Every structure is written in structure tokens, then in C-alpha cells.
Sequence to fold (205 residues):
Amino acid sequence: MKIFITALLIAGALVASASAFIYAGIFNVAADAPHSAFTYTIMEAVRSRSIATRANDLQPPPLDNAALISTGAEHYAAMCSGCHLSPDKTTDSEIRAGLYPKPPDLTKHRHASPAEAFWVIKHGIKMSGMPAWGMTHDDSSIWGLVAFLQKLPELTPAQYQELAKTETESHHQHAHDHQHDHAGATGNSRHAEETRKGELHHHEQ
Fold:
């Protein structure tokens, strides 16, 4: 009985201490105030084990597919290079410089297995600045990013620019063609309507 009461008192003291720590605002949440080595180690372990456990059953598609890599290059240039850098931009951007923890430089080496990279891109990471791109992108687009990340550390600035530029230009051309087709369809519809009205007017006369 004494042991139970002692344990209960210790637990109560711990809860009270934690509550006082929280409500006193002792912990500094500022991004320009780094964690202690102990806190950082704990957070790293929690993050890596959480990702590994949830990515364990994912089966990547063939990641050497040229079309998949090309699509990934477009998305990386548009969504990722500002935080994770690119072969043609190796210095910190304004947003990257202010993030903590600092996003990994993905141009240097691969920081995760393909399955883990997919999970992180799709679901994001709490309190890190890493968004959940799965909210706006389908799995195929995310696997494209993963495929591109396998190639990224090997790319020269010129190769990177060519990949990103080619896919971006293709995307813009597709959008232009769609607008042109829509405009053409609208014009044809108006012409048909005008012709029909003219025929009705002629018939009434």
C-alpha cells in the first residue's frame, strides 16, 4: 500500500511539474532558438522510427522510368527547391535560412529510402515546415518526385535545368493548347449559333 501511495505521489508531482513548466512558458518555441542536444536526439529518434514504421509496407514502382523522373523534376522545381536546394542554386533561400530544423539538402545525397521519402512527401512532418503534399497531389505525382530524388544528387546544374525546363515548357504548352482548343470550340459554337439564327430569320421571311 505504501508503495502504491508513493508511486501516486511521484506521478502527481511529475504532472504538477510538467504543468508548471508548460504554463510558465519556459520552453522557447522560437525557430531561431535551437533545441538542446538531448531534446534534438529524442525528436530525431521519434521521427525516424515513426516514418520507418509507417513506410515499411510501401512498395515503390520502377523508379528508373524516364516519364516518372521528368514529371518529378517539374514538381521538384516548383515545390521543393526553395527549401531543399537544387544543383543550380546551392545557397540558402530566404525561407530555408529561417527554418528550424533546417530542411535536408537533397542535392548532396539521399536522406531516406524511396518508401520513406514517399511517406514523408505525402504526409509531411509535424512542426518541421514539411507540408503534406498528398493533400493536393496524387500518389503517381509523389512517386515521380521520389524517382527524381534518386537522380538528383548525380545531376549537374545544366542537367537539372534541362530536366526542369523541358517538363515546365511541356506543361505550359499543354495549358496553351487546352486554352486554344477551348477558344476554338467556343468560336465554333458561336458560329453555329449565328448560322442557326440566320437560317431561322431567312425562313421567317
User: Anything to note?
Assistant: Residues 1-30 form one domain. Residues 157-204 form the longest helix (48 residues). Helices lie at 2-23, 37-55, 66-79, 81-84, 94-97, 114-123, 139-151, 157-204. DSSP finds eight helices and no strands in the chain.
